[in-house]
Amino acid sequence: MERLDKRLAATGRWSRKEARELIRAGRVSVDGAPCRAPEAKLDEDAPVWVDGAAIPAHGPVYLMLHKPAGVVSSTDEPGERTVLDLLGEEYRKIGLFPAGRLDKDTEGLLLLTNDGPLAHRLLSPKSHVDKVYYMEVDGALDGDDVLAARAGMVLGDGTICLPADMELLSRNSAHITLREGKYHQVKRMLASRGKPVTYLKRVRFGPLELDEKLDKGEWRPLTREEQAAVCRH
Ligand code: URA
Fold it and tell me: 233 CA distance to ligand 1 centroid (A)?
């Protein structure tokens, strides 16, 4: 049995507060009868409607998380705080996982979803989804770094990177846009230039831009427009 307000919030379309308001406003029915009690308990498969439209028991959910440093991008890792630990417990049960990974010390935009086919498309090496990072380095960035990134870097172990765009912001900070996602890629690219990364934050993932209103550790459902844009991939 689960609470009605939790069931609605678990769709990612409403917060718990919004769900309670919808229910109290008489816009929600359960098993064909209006229900104004947010705390009403229902069976996992009890049909729920909002404004006459059926709500799938657990439809696809898409959340934007502002990942803080110190949290790992996995669903379960003994001894570590995971990105799922940042969400409410109603999200634990619906198979959410991060579409892609950020290192434990990297901050920024992470898409969490239970839409496996979409995640697969976004992460496929063939799909070349743009990922933009803000980075700070130990050392002075210059035009040679920009040219090296644009040419496609060859890392110390022979790994060949696709061309990347680098926009210098200050002596030691830049935006870098990758179209692939190799392991520790930004850090390895800059290490190969002798300018180790000291701070890294993802600010864009495909069509999604990190919402500046989200503090570190906060999340929100994607808007309808964001969801449509990301699902076009
Ligand atoms: N590149 C890195 O080095 N780390 C990340 O977390 C993401 C991209």
Answer: 22
pLDDT of residue 173: 98
Distance (angstroms) between ligand 1 centre and the Cα of 182 equals 8
Ligand 1 atom 7: residue of nearest CA = 102
Distance CA 209, CA 230 (A): 11
> Using CA atoms, how far apart are residues 23 and 3, in angstroms rounded to an integer?
12
Q: 89-93, 127-131, 203-207 — which is least confidently predicted?
A: 89-93
Q: In terms of pLDDT, which residue wins out, 95 or 189?
A: 189
For the question of residue 31 being annotated catalytic, the response is no
Cβ–Cβ under 8 Å, residues 64 and 211: yes
Q: What is the pLDDT of residue 102?
A: 97
What secondary structure does DSSP assign to 133-144, as a single string? EEEEESS---HH
Residue tagged active-site, from 51, 76, 85, 103: 103
Which pLDDT does position 57 carry in this prediction?
66
Average pLDDT over residues 16-23: 92
Nearest CA to ligand 1 atom 2: 184
Give pLDDT, residue 56: 65
| CB 128 within 8 Å of CB 180 | yes
Residues with CB under 6 A from ligand 1: 102-103, 106, 184-187, 200
Give the C-alpha separation, 158 to 120, whole Å.
27
Give the pLDDT confidence score for residue 1 in this predicted structure. Answer: 81
Of the CA atoms within 13 Å of residue 215, those in its CB half-sphere come to 1
Using the mean position of ligand 1's atoms as its centre, give its distance from the Cα of residue 225 in Å: 27
Q: Which atom of ligand 1 is nearest to the CA of 184?
A: 3
